[in-house]
Amino acid sequence: MSWREIVVSVCLGLAVNGAFDLSPWLARRLLPFAARLWTQDAESRAAYAEEWQAIIEDRPGSLLKLGTAITFLAGGAWRSAPRLVSRLETRRPGRRLVSAALGASGAFFTLFGIGLSSWAIVSLGVSMLALATALSSLWMQKRQAKRPHS
């Protein structure tokens, strides 16, 4: 083994150990957000968060606790999806954010694929960049079309 392999294996071991220690903490932090997605009533939120906290504390292992919290979060997202979609349809925020996130992800995948010499990942990144550019230009055209001409 070379010294690089030894350093990488030690660093990966420390990262995995830290992730296991971080999992219960992250699970506890996800519960209030999951309860907020689950219901709009403040009293029900507190009851759900307290009950779910007890369920998570009963789970053995760090990753199982995090998996349970993610399940609660996914259930809350599924339950609140119609409410959130109706709010988004009235305000329509985030078009720039969607384009920026898609473009940043595309740039990341492109550079990541170049680093790995994987043309499949590079092509995914380039297509994400192209989609971000097309969406932002389409949204700009729609916004300009809605403005009254002077």
Describe the structure.
Helix 1 crosses helix 3 (62-91). 89% of the residues lie in helices and 0% in strands. The protein has five helices and no strands. The protein folds into two domains: 3-91, no CATH class; 95-146. It is mainly α.
Structural class estimated from helices and strands: mainly alpha
Helix-strand sequence: HHHHH
> Which descriptor suits the 3D outline?
flat
Low-confidence stretches: none
Total strands: 0
The gyration radius over C-alpha positions equals 22 Å
Q: What's the story with the biggest beta sheet?
A: none
Average pLDDT, rounded to a whole number, is 79
**Total of helices:** 5
**Count of discrete domains:** 2
N-C termini distance: 73 Å
Strand content: under 5%
Helix content: over 70%
Please write out the topology.
Elements: H1 3-38, H2 42-58, H3 62-91, H4 95-116, H5 119-146
Helix pairs in contact: 1-2, 1-3, 4-5
